[in-house]
Amino acid sequence: MFDGIKTTLREKAINFIFPQQEIKGIAATRDGDGNLRLDSYSTSLPPGDMFTHVLNEADQEDNNSRRIRITSPYLQNVWVMACINVGKINLAQVPFRLKLNDKDMDKRIYPARLFDWVSPNLNRFSLWEGTFTWRRIRGEAFWEKQRAIDGTITRLNILNPDQLEEQVDRTMDMIVSWKYTYGLGGEYRIILASDIVQFKNYNPYNKYRGLSDLTAGMLGLDTDYAAQLFNRDYFRNPAIKPKVIISSDQRMNENDANAKRDQFIQKHGGEKRDVMVMGQGAGAQLLGAVQKDISFVDLSKWERSKVYALLNTPAALVQDTEGSSQNKADITAQRVQLYDNNLIPEMHYYESVIDSEIIQAEKLTGVVGAFDLSVIEVLREGLSSKLDTAKKYWDMGVPYNNLDEKFDLGTGPIEGGDVGYIPSSVVPVGTEPQINNVTLAPDKNPISPPAPVIEPTSGKMMVYCDGKILPMDVKGLFDLSSRTRRKLKRQLDPIVSAFRKDLDEKYFYKMRTDILKKMADYSPGEKAEMPYSPTDIIVNIVPDMKPYNDKLEKISDPYYAAAYQVGAKDIAVNIGRAFVMNNPTMLATLAEKKIHIKEINNTIGRQLRKKIRKIVDDGLKNGDRNEVIKQSLIDGLKGTMKDAQVRAATIAQTEISGVVNNSRIDTMKELGVQKHAWSGSMGAKEPRIDHHGSVDGEVRMIGEKFSNGLRWPHDNAADAEDVINCECQTMPAA
Fold this sequence. Notes:
Shape: elongated
Largest sheet: 3 strands, antiparallel
């Protein structure tokens, strides 16, 4: 076909590359009175699908009315549809989340609901499927922002790019609106540019429209489509595949030939189209190619490999068993490749456009939108492999922060992560250090007998530090513990502060308000002059603690989980091994802590009952009137609840410290450490914890009591005086 392109057509093609086509636009100007006026005009810009347009022009010049043409690659080519379907389905599974000030937004409220309940015809899956599909087919996708009366966006609607025509302001060289044609009769409506979100591939030939990845492959798609049609027609067309040719030396007319054919079919079977009859001087020659002359298999393989390349899709994922390996490991690798090279860059592009065209344009201050990549199972599997590789480099002395950046581990830089470490326990044979029955390399499930307890005066103990086992005396242990304490404090202070605030404002204040309201409304009976009964007041005023227990659990849950992670991570780094969060041990510990914190409500209940009984008894003894006793009760209960609110800071600090210490013990057990060394606050100002500091340097099997009677700091079985404001720690020992 290209050989038939005339010089005039070549000129047309050049004219398309160097813009000559007129596209209608509008210009916004103001008249003498200052009124806005829109004038139509023309500009020289090529269409977005320029190459296809040139080929169509070629068909017209060549007078080829039967030219085979791909008009819709998505519908006419199975490999195009397969590649796009793989991409759109995998992308749509990843939720797009909005956060307000770093907290997840409720999907039921604006603007988060825009991406969950999109419109009557679109859910969150079809929104991304449609956007991805149009981007691949046409090189651009469009969302329309449909608004309420107050101007807020109520829903998003996907528009067909083929039905949109840009309206350009020539004075500002920018799109001011879009003409959307939607009816069979050419009905259209104008949509303001501010109400359109356009996702487009860069188009060097038309800066206003996108350019499809498939444009460069249209000729190949046409060829593949033509091959399929030829293959189909070969088996349908009887003129080129007779099964029997009957020849005769006699001359025959049509009736003679039909009789000869019928006679043969009657005797041997078959159909008329299978039998060709030729008389004297007649012959048959098949003109044109036959099916065996064309290598359809090789041609199809070649063309579909170009489709994979254009749409950046691995062959195995579209079930191409000939073009790829179906080994499970290879498929997993290709799924990772699909995300890394195709879908994740696509998602980042969507995030950027949404940030610009919706979040910033609608002035949604503090809102950030992003796809939640943590839900992608195959990437989590890839992370495990990356961690194994990173661990090998870590053992070779590569600093952790370098590994995090190189392998994108997701933790971010950590304190001390710019320093590399190498094992120090490798020594020449015969020069091993003698370490008094202490195991240098603890097994995950050690079966050796317990090592003897190393008292503070018995010399050095072996303690884990940054993945190594180092000999330390009591002072060295205290220095290590102090550094750890300061590091943990920096991480825990925001958690403690937020927990204290929630306890104060969302819990104690609510309980205080409820109790005082009940007290203000209280009456001893039908007659106001009836004497007050402390028992009756207690029954009516002291609340049922079950709803408050539930509320306390709900408030404490996120803070407990965050604190547990901090403690577990610190121990895992010290030991030099990975620790999996949300394991059964962690869940059991947090459940136990939630039971323990309910003791706060039991204490408040006891204090309220004691206060009520004392005030009423004293008032009755003094002969006070009910109004006086009632006011005394209100003042007394205010004081009791105020004391509880004041204790919120102490409660938050103590509870978070308890979770951290329990998480450290859990992590030691999970990672196979059998022993730990106590490190208290040397020179503590609190006299009640002197017996904590007196056991500094003691080493015990985990679970065995130290000489102060505790299994570890913040032991759940300890008395309150051994827990409140305790800053002691135990360090993993070998």
